[in-house]
Amino acid sequence: MSTEGDIYRNARIGLAVERPAGWSFSSIADFANLRAQALLLDEFPDALHALKDPTNLPVFLFENSAHRQGHFAPAITLYDEPLRGGTPGDQLKAHANMVGWLGRSYQQCRILEAPVEVSVSGADATRCRWTYRHQLESGESAALYVQSVLVFRPPQVHTYYLVDRYPDRHTGDPVWDRFIASIAYRS
After folding, report:
1. Is the pTM of this model over 0.90?
2. Residue 163's closest CA among 80, 104, 53, 77?
3. I need a labelling partner for 98 at 20 to 30 A (CA). Which of 9, 83, 151, 161 fits?
4. Is the dihedral of CA 29, 159, 17, 184 positive or negative?
5. Which DSSP category does 19 fall into?
6. Positive or negative, the Cα torsion across 93, 106, 66, 78?
7. 83 φ/ψ angles, rounded to the nearest 5 degrees
8. Which range is least confidently modeled, 11-15, 49-53, 115-119?
9. Helix or strand holding residue 94 (H, E)
């Protein structure tokens, strides 16, 4: 991993992206600690929930701390995970199913705009807009707006989450669009 100005490069996954101006890197350790405090609808006391798995951490986490409220700031994360079974035949349905799976864990999860096909650096991808209520053990709660972008790069899938408050967003679509357009994969 390396950075040069606002350009983040990760040679292991062949990626370069441009961090939005004024945004900063955020601590993955702090994120993991906060994630462990999330209240999930389908959590069982004796089992580790997949959304709290300490081995499943984002590759990077950018945040706009100028709009921090409590524990929450607008953020962009990337997860690099194994793509089991290869690229799905119906990528739009796979994306909707992912949001549906998250909806079993998060309150008030609903799709705002159904997944659509997009191209990200020449790779097959889908983009979906959705919302949910994030709750912490402390009682802190926030309605969140999410744009998820899935990029299928067998044998991996990259899931970008662009997150802000809902419905009072601080980050407009031009920032998200510029970030997504900045994603560059090495062949």
Report:
1. yes
2. 77
3. 9
4. positive
5. P
6. negative
7. -95, 95
8. 49-53
9. helix 91-103
User: In which region does residue 57 sit, left (phi positive, over 0), alpha (psi from -120 to 50) or beta (all else)?
Assistant: beta
**Cβ–Cβ < 8 Å for 142, 70:** yes
* CA pseudo-torsion sign 66, 70, 71, 74: negative
Q: Which residues make Cβ contacts (< 8 Å) with residue 38, sequence separation at least 6?
A: 51, 52, 134, 135, 136, 137
Q: What is the mean pLDDT of residues 10-18?
A: 96
| Residue 102 φ/ψ, nearest 5 degrees | -65, -30
Q: What confidence tier does 146 reach under pLDDT thresholds 50, 70, 90? A: very high
The single residue listed with the structure tokens 């951490």 is 57
Please state, in angstroms and rounded to a whole number, the distance separating the CA atoms of residues 139 and 36.
Answer: 14
Residue pLDDT, tens place only, 77-112: 999 999 988 889 999 999 999 999 999 999 999 999
